[in-house]
Design brief:
The structure is a single chain. Helix content is about 45%, strand content about 15%. The protein is globular and about 55 Å long. It is of the alpha/beta class. The protein has a single domain, classed as Alpha-Beta Barrel (TIM Barrel). It is built from 13 helices and ten strands.
């Protein structure tokens, strides 16, 4: 099994989740042949990165999940195909589908059902630790996978990025601080997700993205994740040069998730070059 980051340095719930994932991976290895064959037969991947970049507005990745360890039940009775269709109709550029069952109430079937009902790309959001997880994602129809820098060694991160690319998939590489960002950039990640949630305390702070976005190269797509509550947050992030936002809980708790997604779609952004120039002008009055 590939080396991951030491669980001793991880907050309790994350360490627990990773232990569960390792047990699940051992069981999945018994079906490896079938998974690899299904991955080869899966529909051609949709272009996740292109769906997020260069639109002149902040692209919305709308999430499908029933619960989470931090928030508890969120939308336990959701129907993935119906929710996905509502999100697409509201202008979402892509979907994020939680496939972890134990902690988030999801499944790869949720992902397949959601993808079959829309034409936009779908991210498999889970705790990807091993090449077999990437093949499993492709077998389920995923167009992109989530790679969390905090839980992966540099070697594994690089190998999973290369494997995803070889399968025609994108990888959303998630970071929370400057050290993790530097590791992601060294691995040549071209989509960086900045998680505004501190996994040690479960608190969220949009300034996490605002502190990092200015040092991310212009050719890397930047996604802000967690703690995004409404249009004002998206406007603030777009003004700083963020390309996309990944929003889950605030949409899923809304009476009408599609209507809530429509409020977050089409909000203008500006390039990071323009954002940096504007910031310099503010710091240096003429």
């Amino acid at each position: 099994m590939p080396e991951t980051q030491g669980s001793g340095s991880l907050p309790g719930i994350l360490a627990e989740i990773l232990e569960t994932k390792r047990r699940e991976l051992s069981a999945l290895e018994g079906r490896a042949g079938a998974v690899l064959r299904a991955a080869e037969d899966a529909p051609r991947p949709r272009d996740f990165r292109a769906s997020l970049a260069g639109a002149g507005s902040v692209s919305l990745i709308a999430e499908c999940k029933r619960r989470s360890p931090g928030a508890g039940p969120i939308r336990p009775h959701l129907v993935p195909s119906e929710l996905a269709h509502a999100y697409e109709s509201a202008g979402a550029a892509a979907l994020s589908v939680l496939t972890d069952e134990t902690y988030f109430g999801g499944s790869t079937r949720d992902l397949g059902d959601a993808r079959a009902s829309v034409s936009i790309p779908v991210l498999r959001k889970d705790f990807t630790l091993d090449p077999l997880h990437v093949h499993e994602a492709r077998a389920a129809g995923a167009d992109a996978v989530l790679l969390i820098v905090r839980i992966l060694s540099d070697d594994v991160l690089g190998s999973l990025l290369r494997l995803s690319s070889s399968l025609g998939m994108a990888a959303l590489v998630e970071v929370h601080d400057r050290g993790e960002l530097d590791r992601a950039l060294r691995a040549e990640a071209d989509i960086i997700g900045v998680n505004n949630r501190d996994l040690a305390t479960f608190t969220t702070d949009l300034d996490t993205t605002l502190r990092l976005v200015g040092v991310i190269p212009d050719d890397v797509v930047v996604v802000s994740e967690s703690g995004i509550r409404g249009p004002a947050d998206v406007l603030r992030l777009g003004d700083a040069g963020v390309d996309a936002v990944l929003v889950g809980e605030s949409l899923l708790r809304a009476a009408d998730p599609g209507a809530a997604a429509a409020e977050l779609s089409g909000i203008p952004n500006r390039s990071r070059g323009h954002a940096r120039h504007a910031a310099r002008d503010v710091r240096t009055p003429r």
